[in-house]
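User: Mind token order:
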Amino acid sequence: MNTILEKIRTALPNFLVKQIQQQNYNEVLGLAQSNKKYYEYELGRDVTYDDVVNGILECPPMIPKEQKFFIGLYQENQLIAIMDFLLGYPNESTVWIGLFMLDNSLQQSGIGTKVITAFKQVVKDSGYLFIQLGCLVENKDGYSFWTKNNFVEVCRVVTKEQGRKDWNIIVMEAKL
């Protein structure tokens, strides 16, 4: 049986798709640093190596590590996009996208939509009914991207965590 990662690879044949490993962390940092505006919204400052590592390793409580994927998409040996997602979260019929980020120089090129369209089909073919994500209210470009890709607002929440700024989040969903 094909794993979700194998299915994504098949759906995106023009990309090298791989699970991000420790040796890729600096590449992820470089891609993240190309998206300064996003991290200003999320962190209120520039992204650091430790922020990247924490994002890659972070998993909600009670969720087995086997349900979390942090993948990189490469073209011509260059990391051009990252995606963090959880299978069966927040419920068994849903996949949660924790982060999808395209290198800033490639935004508005159609690559992001191509990736998300293929990902939605893979998730649907794998038996899931929904994809959900959280979009920071300040991230107007992100909100526009997700609505263009048929995600709709479900609710708004504020998350508070000691040591970081509060996040005003629009929870969005696509029915598959």
